[in-house]
Amino acid sequence: MQRGRISGLDQARSIAIIAVVAVHLSFQFPHLPQWATVLARMGQYGVQLFFVISAVTIFMTLDADRERYRAASHVTARFYIKRFFRIAPLYYVAIVAYGAMSWYTYNFDADHASILGPHDISDVVLNLLFVHAVSASAINNVVPGGWSIGVEMLFYSIAPVIFFFATSRARLVVLTIVLLLACAAFLATGACGGAALECNVRNNSFFYFWPPVQVPCFLVGIWCWALFRPYLTGQARLGRAGIGITLGTIALCGVATAVFGVWMGRANEYAPLVAACGSAALVLVCCSEANQRLMGRIAVAIGRESYAIYLWHFIFAFEALYLFKHSHMLATHGPLLSLAVFVVVLAVTLAASYMLSRLTDILIQRFASRFARGLLERVDTTFAFRQTASARVE
């Protein structure tokens, strides 16, 4: 752990963002070898890895704040301030940036289709309020990939309630059962026409993106924190047997996810939960085996910028689409050359997205963080004054 961060979690984030960028670029490379296509398309489940890491990080932060502050309302207020100013400023800029790109391509570049799906001002408002995960037109059409941010923010809204309720393993079991039953009920009635066992959710459709399918992934992250906290924080390390079990779990869940999802499409609605289970095992391995060698430091740097990279990499993915569409440079190339170009474009996209993320960190995120720290100081002062006044009365 360094400067309040767990390097293993940042390394896991780097895997997640590389996987997500890979899947979004893979559609520009139709001549990849079959195995490479399947592997790249599996990258979409990097989002579920993000969800698991998010749940772990949130509960770690809430645990730390609960040790420092007495009132649950104080801890909750701090949580919402930190989460909002971590997510909202860059997302609002992304709404403007992608809206401008879409408007330009739609109006002035007749040979280049609009980069976003149909939406109107009400969809933009839903994104500004972070409730777009419940709207089919708003969930992924205002900011590309914005569906995952909507799902995350929905989870953030209930995370403190979950945290303060699940004060024991027994309570966490009850909460898990209740949430899973609720998600199953929504899935059955909303996406499956009342017959969950006969459900056939299409991959990357609204019913794949929507919260009842994705929220169970956060439960996996919560259980990961509850069961394996010493391993996640570096207080303990997995032995050989533990490493073997976790690697086996990753492989088994990976195959099952591919069968349910992008490879065979047997049950896309269950693929995210299975992917989350494999993601939890991957997080354990990363935290147990985190290193500070060159590749480890690079992975940590990428992981720290993963949110901004996620938002901005679509710009370069769209540029790659435009380039390859007009140059026809991959039309006659064989699988191996196509794979080589794909790897180069992936590296360039990651590098460009990282540099843009650093720039937006300087121009936007640092000011947002400074403002958030000021609000947190005011909140801390207010609650300290209340506690002092209460003590005097007593």
UniProtKB/TrEMBL annotation:
Record bears the keyword Cell inner membrane: no
This protein's UniProt keywords: Acyltransferase, Membrane, Transferase, Transmembrane, Transmembrane helix
Domain Acyltransferase: 7-357
Record GO terms (molecular function): acyltransferase activity, transferring groups other than amino-acyl groups
Segments passing through the bilayer: 12-30, 42-62, 83-106, 145-165, 172-197, 209-228, 240-264, 270-287, 307-324, 336-356
UniProt superkingdom: Bacteria
One GO-annotated biological process of the protein: polysaccharide biosynthetic process
Cellular-component GO terms for this entry: membrane
PANTHER family: ACETYLTRANSFERASE, ACYL_TRANSF_3 DOMAIN-CONTAINING PROTEIN
Name used for this protein in its record: Acyltransferase
